[in-house]
Amino acid sequence: MLTGLPTRTFFGAGAVSLLALTQAHAEELSVVTYLSATHFGVTEGMQPFMDCVTAETAGATTFNFYPSGQLASAESSLDALGNGLADIAYIVPQRASSKMPLTNVPVLPNMGDSSGEISAAYRKALEADGLLAEELRRNKLTLLTVNQYPPYQVGFTGGVVDTLDGFAGLKLRVIGGSASSTATVLGAVPVELSAADVYIALQRGTVDGVFFPIAGMQAFKLDEVTKAISTNANFGGSMAMIAMNSDTFGAMPKETQQIFLDCGMKSEENLIAYQDGAQERFLQEFEAGGVSVFAFPPEELAKINAELDKTAEEFIARLEARDLPGQAAYDEFRAALGR
Q: Could you tell me the pTM of the whole model?
């Protein structure tokens, strides 16, 4: 069975004595992320997780936290778990696609309408113990928290672009991977940039726009350098996870393992509530600041979605060309999604 699938019973009456845990298993773990300490992935996810574990183990488990890429970048976070540099890491599968190719299925366009829906579908797929679960095992990962961003919207520096034809030739920032195909099928030019570089790229005109989640736009203040932001598209997304080296996890007492899983789920619920719950408020703030917040007309959105279907087709074809089960992984996640 897959490790990392928590129950939803949080610290009930049958929990082991915290005093006994303290006496038997005190340890300090290293946690790494490329995110800044003020990013919501930390404030709503990683920090509450660490605080929860420390509290529920009565101080037996503490953490050395290294944000802002001090020990590991987005690209090297998975390796940091494998080589012992870290015990827990914030991993973005799109930045580790050579080792986690199938886990990029949930970030394709039109694979769910909210953080909560996509996160639940991913958990359900893992419970089925199929291809996606095997990929975690192969990388020796115990999943603690899923941070699935809501579907990407698009922000433009030049004003509203609400037609498919309007995308032609625009340089749009993408995270990489299938997101590059998303830009290409719409007629745009993909420009791969890290999130930290997007603000300056928009400000300098290096790119004409950006695919990004609304909460991410707020976190990186992209409303300051864009003139228009969409509300009703689904350009794919991004998934991250707080994960632990499975050997380290397996060496802990069972009671401590359950605390880690329960705290991880609580952090996941925090992140879902923050991202899905704050979208409308952030859009109102953007509009109050002078940004044109717009919806694609239904007929144009239909045209856009027809092109976005090609992103999944290309993604599957690339995996199959590498002798990877792209179609089967896609079907597995769609079944979990109920679509």
A: 0.89
